[in-house]
């Protein structure tokens, strides 16, 4: 394992320190050092958007606070949900009286910690509602969608729900948009090489040179099976078949995200996107917006995921809404 | 047997050492099932507990020791084990009221409440391949034995029940949590959470045996 770090026990603190110094004009860290909030002005009575989860997914989640996305983030240890206290502190800092929506992926730890924080916020008189992302088709069958985990599709949920809050939707309206986006979003990924936790130095899984993990999650956890390494077109075909099987698309347009897991060259991601575009085009489906790059990663893992979101007119308007965050801008 | 806050503190410090010794093994189990950090997480959590205990050396109420341990564990790790163990410690502490000296019955109620707290937060059942595969058999065994068996004997039976529960997780398919997404691939590896829960109860048995 080679990493540019100092002490493995301090990686999260030192990353946050660097991040808030690098973006000092638009974000600030709260006293507990695990809560970061946007300092950009917003509309009055804006519903607060709180995102979060473990570290190791950079630029998620801390990179997505700013105009048009989230107002604050709670940062956990590597691949571990943050505890309730920084979530509560962030909640208090971003509440403008209209309540706060928690957006996070469907993982047991996140559900418990964000749930406890929501109870604590409620005791302090702040209305909190939550919307969970569960876009990974490989993580459970469709009839057990409540068991599915959230992966790169979280980006689209942050995008549309963040836009809705920025446009003045009320708390129920923001939750409705987050849930609609999640319902219309499907993702799946492949892993080519493992990530290494700084504290153990061990690979998250082992693969032969000619193998890949199909359907893996973005914490280095193994996928549904090991399969022979395919070409970009074969991988795109396999992932797109599973994704498109579940999205009943008639004449709707879609948003596409080809997401790198950390150490995948942009070249590979664009080669994957090329095939995704061909598949959609053959089906007569129009791409409304495309995103290609490292949006939600898994340290230095090699591999990629494909996410497709079916858009209605309301979601199109929200996905077009401008964003200005340290890790993502859209005009 | 009477236990006070100082005994509980010394017991928890033994857990800190045990987790430190076993952390690589716990992470290795977790690499096969999850994201490979269970040993790291438990170590971060119990090191925070250790630090907190050093601030509480004059504390007389057992409840304060337990709830402070739970909250410092939670604040240090988050994750899923954070809320689970915090709920266990808080429920255990609440069962003791303001007591400074625990009788045998108080010690049973501490541990049965501890398991109740974890179970309530988790929602998992025996067979789901979680921490509760160790803790529920442990609790049920405690409930089945009676005072006349003697405290060390009762815990010895209960820890044995917990150990069998932990060992059975090797052949289980995970039904809950991150590893459940592995389906059949989760069979063949012991659950890391069940394993660390066993270390915690086993260390308690060794501790009371040493008194």
Characterization of the model:
The complex is a heterodimer of chains A (331) and B (211). With 331 residues, chain A is α/β, with parallel strands linked by helices. Chain A folds into two domains: 175 residues, Rossmann fold, CATH 3.40.50.10440; 127 residues, 2-Layer Sandwich (Hypothetical Protein Tm841, Chain: A,domain 3), CATH 3.30.1180.20. Chain A contains eight helices and 14 strands. Chain A has a six-stranded mixed beta sheet with strand order 1-2-4-3-5-6, sandwiched between helices. In chain A, a hairpin with a 5-residue loop joins β1 and β2. In chain A, α6 packs across α7. The radius of gyration of chain A is 19 Å and the shape is globular. The relative contact order of chain A is 0.15. The model of chain A has no long low-confidence stretch (mean pLDDT 96). Chain B is mainly α and 211 residues long. Chain B has a single domain, classed as Alpha Horseshoe (Serine Threonine Protein Phosphatase 5, Tetratricopeptide repeat), CATH 1.25.40. In chain B, 69% of the residues lie in helices and 2% in strands. Chain B contains eight helices and two strands, in the order βααααβαααα. Chain B has a two-stranded antiparallel sheet. The termini of chain B are close together. Chains A and B meet through β4 and α3 of A and α1, α2, α3 and α4 of B.
């Amino acid at each position: 394992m080679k990493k540019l770090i100092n002490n493995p026990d301090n990686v999260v603190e030192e990353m946050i320190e660097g991040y808030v110094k690098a973006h000092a004009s638009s974000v600030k860290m709260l006293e507990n050092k695990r809560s970061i909030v946007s300092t950009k002005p917003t509309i009055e009575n804006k519903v607060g958007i709180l995102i979060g989860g473990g570290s190791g997914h950079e630029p998620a989640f801390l990179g997505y606070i700013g105009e048009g996305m989230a107002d604050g983030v709670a940062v956990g240890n590597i691949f571990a949900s943050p505890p309730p206290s920084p979530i509560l502190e962030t909640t208090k800092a971003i509440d403008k009286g209209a309540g706060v929506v928690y957006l996070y992926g469907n993982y047991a730890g996140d559900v418990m910690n964000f749930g406890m924080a929501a109870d604590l916020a409620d005791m302090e008189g702040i209305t909190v509602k939550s919307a969970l992302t569960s876009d990974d088709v490989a993580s459970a069958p469709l009839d057990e969608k409540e068991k599915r985990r959230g992966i790169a599709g979280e980006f689209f949920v942050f995008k549309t729900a963040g836009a809705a809050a920025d446009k003045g939707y009320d708390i129920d309206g923001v939750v409705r948009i987050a849930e609609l986006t999640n319902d219309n979003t499907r993702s799946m990924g492949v892993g080519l090489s493992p990530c290494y936790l700084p504290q153990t130095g061990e690979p998250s899984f082992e693969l032969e040179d000619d193998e890949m993990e199909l359907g893996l999650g973005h914490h280095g956890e193994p996928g549904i099976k090991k399969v022979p390494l395919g070409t970009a077109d074969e991988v795109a075909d396999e992932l797109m078949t599973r994704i498109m099987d579940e999205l009943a698309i008639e004449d709707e347009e879609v948003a596409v995200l080809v997401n790198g897991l950390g150490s995948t060259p942009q070249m590979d991601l664009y080669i994957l996107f090329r095939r995704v575009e061909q598949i959609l085009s053959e089906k007569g489906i129009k791409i409304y917006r495309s995103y290609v790059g490292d949006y939600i990663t898994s340290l230095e893992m090699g591999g990629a995921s494909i996410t497709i979101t079916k858009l209605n007119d309301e979601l199109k308007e929200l996905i077009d809404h401008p964003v200005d965050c340290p890790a993502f801008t859209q005009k | 047997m009477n236990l006070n806050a100082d005994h509980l503190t010394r017991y928890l410090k033994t857990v800190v050492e045990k987790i430190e010794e076993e952390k690589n093994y716990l992470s290795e189990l977790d690499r096969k099932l999850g994201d490979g950090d269970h040993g790291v997480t438990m170590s971060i959590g119990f090191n925070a507990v250790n630090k907190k205990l050093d601030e509480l050396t004059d504390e007389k109420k057992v409840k304060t020791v337990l709830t402070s341990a739970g909250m410092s564990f939670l604040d240090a790790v988050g994750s899923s084990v954070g809320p689970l163990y915090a709920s266990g410690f808080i429920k255990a502490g609440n069962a003791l009221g303001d007591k400074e000296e625990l009788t045998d019955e108080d010690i049973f109620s501490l541990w049965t409440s501890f398991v109740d707290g974890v179970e309530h937060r988790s929602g998992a059942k025996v067979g789901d391949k979680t921490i509760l595969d160790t803790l529920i058999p442990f609790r049920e065994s405690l409930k089945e034995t009676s005072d006349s068996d003697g405290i060390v004997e009762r815990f010895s039976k209960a820890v044995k029940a917990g150990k069998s529960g932990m060992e059975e997780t090797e052949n289980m398919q995970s039904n809950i949590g991150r590893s459940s997404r592995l389906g059949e691939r989760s069979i063949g590896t012991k659950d890391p959470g069940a394993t660390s829960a066993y270390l915690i109860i086993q260390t308690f048995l060794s501790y009371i045996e040493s008194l």
